[in-house]
Amino acid sequence: MARFAPVCGINMMEELACKKLIGGYHLWLAHDVLRAPERWQRVAKFVRDTYEDAFIILDNSLIELGYPLPPADLLRGIEIVQADVIVLPDYLTECDRTLEASKRGIEELTANGLPSYCSMLGVVQGKTWDEYHRCARELVGMGCNHLSIPRITRKVLGSRIQITGEIAERSGKSLHLLGFSDDLMDDLNAALNNRAVMGIDSTEPLRLGRLGLKYSDTINWSRIPPRDKETYLDEPGFVTPEMEYNLNWIRKVIS
Description:
12 helices; about 45% helix
């Protein structure tokens, strides 16, 4: 059973908690946590007090910043929210650079006191099937407890479904799917068809809900405004009925 992690800023996350829509599975952005540490700490405590199966992944903020945060900042974020998993540094489609950064990140995190409660997630990057498999294999060899297949995989390999299954089978590790791609059905099937997938995260259900759109067969996907730099994540939060519908719909479909 896969779970869904809504990605948003602290204002909306607090409102999701108030409306009991927050859920227990999360991927939070490290740079966002560092900007409002006390508020994220309170939300993390609420999640753990509310959900027995609470699970918090702290992301390195590559997509949002254009570069992964350094290990020292990641360690600060881990301690603030008591993260169960830290996403190691990675670079989009770059296998070797990702492996180098991940290795360096592991060394620095370990040397500077990575908490025993926090495990490591390596992001599988590459431009070919062979690079994806090599990246996954070497990340496991470095000691990664979990792996992730990023949303750009849909564009690079044509689909995330088969590669997710192959890497799960060969690695024996649990996987997280990073973000929604431009093909929702591919995303959902990648999560549904592989038992090793823990969950998937995205801003999209909230973004579409803010636009007044619900997930349904009647959505004209070609008319949906494209994603910008996702600055809306920092806007004051207000949860619309469409947002609530989309969150419940996604969670039901992939569970």
